[in-house]
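Q: what does this look like with flavin-adenine dinucleotide bound?
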Amino acid sequence: MTDSATSLHHRVVIAGGGTAGIPVAAALLKADPSLDVAVIEPSRDHYYQPGWTLVGGGDMRAEATRCAEADVMPAKAHWIRDTVAGFDPDANRVDLASGAAVTYDFLVVALGLQLDWGAIDGLKQTLGRNGVTSNYRFDLAPYTHELAQSLKDGDRALFTQPAMPIKCAGAPQKALYLTAATLRKRDVKAEVAFYNQGGAMFGVPAYARELDKVIAGYGATPYFKHSLIAVDGDRREATFDTDDGHVTRGFEMLHVVPPQSAPDVIKHSSLAGDAGWVSVDKNRLTHSRYDNVFALGDCTDTPNAKTMAAIRRQFPVVVAGLRRALGENVSPADDYDGYGACPLTVAHGKVLLAEFRYGGEVVSSFPLDPRKVRRIHWPLKAQFFPWLYWHVMLKGRDWHWPRPKPRPDLSA
Ligand code: FAD
């Protein structure tokens, strides 16, 4: 691994060294250690974000979700520790915050998405205090658990979900379930409510129906078409926009999931489609206008659930496509079929493992009814998936087994 932008041209440039960028770099270099691959990534740390739900529930240590970026960066990658400030795909160039520029033969965009905390009035000032928390930040997830442990009888705990798309659409309600389960364990009778901008508990009806039962089982109230617009931390009040005007609710605990969008640097570039995300072919992950540009992960406009699970299926497609474009004689990978998964932690020790692909089609990796809450899926979420991430996916290894099978009986 080198640590500079001194070489101003690279055969392959990967923008972003997160969940999507690192597996692509690792797999390319595993296939051809002499390939000139650069990764532009400013962060010193690398995170396993799916673990933050468990941290918020008190089921995982925060430190288990973080490691040094240097430890996941492939040894033969050129690590450019800088921030992408602009894309000029017509000139095959990426401009950096330092003022340098890098040109490429092929570009992979993997910048993730942007958390728009500032879109909610008063939120930034009060995050991390006054009972306001979010599992969407490494440093705040432990506060979620602290709050769950400090609530008393009669207190109000509110959970919010913004407009789609967001990363891990199930994470807002997972925070609710684990908090409610902690309260139940402590025998605390608090008022728990879910304020959802959308109109259902989940985008896939077969799972939404089950989750209606889960939230009802906690005695928690779901409010649909409620969009958080302001937080007054000192007064401990949250204001929502609804079809009938604004409503304000008091709270002792407020778990916020902020609105999310494509990173500004993508929105302001010609890589963006209408909604600001990188515009790609949803099956091949090639850019819709620039033949030498690929994109994957949360930053694209593919209509799948923005999850690590999706990236696990996407990165082999990008790597095979790139290697073919580089002139290597490799067979094309299967098309990306929109696979995504969401292990819904409905209680400490219990998971509903929702799997699906494009069109909201239900699929299942196991010969079991995927709608059922199961104890055996908890170790998958708490132990196996983190292991798969750190030791398989980030090494650029394609994990094929088991192949998710369509469940047409559940897809209506
Ligand atoms: P990231 O992993 O966010 O990486 C983006 C990288 O780009 C970062 O390293 C960042 O530093 C870098 N970057 C950003 N801007 C720039 C720039 N201008 N220049 C250079 N570099 C830049 N997924 C699941 O599959 N299952 C789950 O259970 C699950 N639970 C989740 C729970 C929570 C609370 C959260 C937050 C996420 C969860 N996810 C889950 C989603 C999953 O973590 C994301 O989908 C995945 O991490 C996205 O990967 P990415 O590479 O696209 O983005």
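The chain has two domains: 7-113+262-337, 115-260. Residues 15-21, 40-43, 49-50, 52-53, 83-84, 110-112, 135-136, 167-168, 171, 263, 265, 297-299, 306-309, 311, 341, 343 surround flavin-adenine dinucleotide (CB under 6 Å).
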